[in-house]
Write a structure and sequence with these properties.
This protein has a five-stranded mixed sheet. A three-stranded antiparallel sheet has the order 1-2-3, with no helix packed on it. By secondary structure, the protein is mostly beta strands. The longest helix is centred in the middle third of the chain and has 4 residues. The protein has one domain. It is built from one helix and eight strands. Helix content is 4%, strand content 48%.
């Protein structure tokens, strides 16, 4: 009997630096009984910046209809909101575009 392979896509944000990582975890057979094979690539912000601190996954990804991930955060000191959206992966690199604005 051939064992099943499960793959999970993970979005990881280093809250100290604002660095974005995209990781995949592969499980063979029963996921509960196996250690996953984990691989990560660092995202590259090509437009704007992702400030350090906690960030949230955009709810659009939860619906599984969005083609690419999006994240947002509110700077607790300034009240500014930053939104970052991913671009299509190229050569194993996930590119991000970020924009920051003051909330009304």
């Amino acid at each position: 009997m051939k064992s099943a392979r499960l793959i999970s896509l993970l979005l990881v944000i280093d809250q100290t630096s604002g660095t974005i990582f995209v990781c995949t975890a592969s499980y063979f057979g029963d996921a509960a009984a196996n250690t996953p094979i984990l691989g990560c690539v660092q995202g590259k912000v090509t437009i704007g910046t992702m400030p350090a601190g906690p960030a949230e996954l955009s709810p659009f990804l939860a619906a599984r209809t969005a083609a690419y991930a999006a994240i947002w955060k509110i700077d607790q000191n300034t009240g500014n909101v930053t939104f970052c959206g991913s671009r299509a992966p190229t050569a194993g690199l996930v590119e991000w575009m970020c924009s920051t604005a003051a909330l009304p």
